[in-house]
Amino acid sequence: MRRFHTLIFALAALLAAVVGAAPEAAIQRPSRIVAIGDIHGSFDGFVSILKATGLIDGSNRWSGGQTHLIQTGDYMDRGEGQRAVMDLLMSLEQQADDAGGGALALLGNHEVMNLVRETRDVTREIFATFAGPDSEKRRVQAWENYAKLAAHKKDKGEPVPSVYAQTRQAWMTTHPPGFVEYMEAMGPRGKYGEWLRGKPMVVNVDGNIFMHAGIPPDKTPATLDELNAQLRMEIQRLDKFVAQLIDRKLATAEFTLNEILQVASSEIGLANAVIAAAKAEGKEADRRRINVPLLMEAQEVLKIDGWLAIDNDGALWYRGLATVKDDASGEPFASVLKKLGARRFVTGHTPQPNRSITVRFGGRAILIDTGMLASVYKGRPSALEIAGDTLTAYYTDGKTELR
């Protein structure tokens, strides 16, 4: 991930992590849980393992009864079936609930990347699945809106930063068909963006902590809900800042995270230049040219590299459950689990070398990313079944009880 200056916000009030609508600490014990790891747009792989575990029928409708499906994030990016995967997850949520079961997709780092406008792993093929009949017309209009930003700066007598200086050809190259619709769909009021913003990153079901990556021992929160609350607050903060930039003609709805950060930096630089010029003349700076609240928020957004959403060493990106030397005693993670009142982690994020579900730290970590998107990871679909005290690894060609 890009490196920017760091800041982690103070934790807010507890946020409900939901299966149904209950806080994570109050989730009841389902008789059967099926957990599926990283999908990355592998629609066929996802469907095949749902069928292998009896969760959907031949029409891709819920057939799992009271089973609870938990997907541990990274259903987005890389694979062109991303949109179909999300549509299926959305439909299964309602169908499972109607059947007395449950389906919950958690936020992984790739979902959050999209929510904070980091689209580096969204392929042109994925963008194309969002293109509609008027896609080219919308793309041209978006370019014209972008071009007006530089004109607005010139009209105000301000220098035009490089973030506004793309040529039409360069802009069209970096904004392929479907890009405009994609950014709209992932926005706060978009079909997928609204759905994603309502999801937690971690949930505890009967002592099983389901999340995408893991919790670093030196960053253990007092409760899991603190992580959910912090992440939601960060996403909302960036959404609000982007809305301010658009309103002030400093950005368009298509701006990526990198562009937003460039704008934040350039606005701070412009304000500093105004203040320095006034000081050199022995005058007070013209306060009408300095939006203090916006600049203060820009300073905080520039510290995004330390946010939970982006921090490579934070709970959304941490790989220690897969990379720290295995220890049958469970340490250093046994102490984390004890503090959180749980028995094990179930996580994805790191494709397992043997492309099989892996048990580590004396059963305290079950790693379920088996590289489902075969075109990228050369892996296979899999699922973990938890039925009472019995753990079973499912694959499309059979199942194995875990010990």
Q: Which keywords apply here?
A:
five-stranded mixed β-sheet; 14 helices; 403 residues
Relative helix content = 25-40%
How would you name the oligomeric state of the polypeptide chains in this document? Answer: single chain
Low-confidence stretches: 1-26
> Could you say what the CATH topology is called?
Purple Acid Phosphatase, chain A, domain 2
Query: How many domain modules?
Result: 1
State Rg. Answer: 23 Å
Provide the succession of SSEs: EHEHEHHHHHHEEHHHHHEEEHEEE
In terms of DSSP E residues, the strand content is 5-15%
CATH architecture: 4-Layer Sandwich
The counted number of beta strands is: 11
* Head-to-tail CA distance between termini: 36 Å
Content-based structural category: alpha/beta
Name of the top-level CATH class: Alpha Beta
Q: Looking at this structure, what is the CATH superfamily?
A: Metallo-dependent phosphatases
Strand order of the largest sheet: 3-2-1-9-10-11
The number of helical segments is 14
Main beta sheet: 6 strands, mixed
Report mean pLDDT, rounded to a whole number.
92
- The gross shape turns out to be globular
Record the SSE blueprint.
Elements: E1 33-36, H1 43-52, E2 68-71, H2 82-98, E3 102-105, H3 109-115, H4 124-128, H5 135-155, H6 168-174, H7 179-185, H8 191-197, E4 202-205, E5 208-211, H9 224-247, H10 257-280, H11 292-301, H12 320-323, H13 333-340, E6 344-347, E7 358-360, E8 365-367, H14 374-377, E9 382-387, E10 390-395, E11 398-401
Parallel strand pairs: 1-2, 2-3, 5-6, 6-8
Antiparallel strand pairs: 1-9, 4-5, 7-8, 9-10, 10-11
Helix pairs in contact: 9-11, 10-11
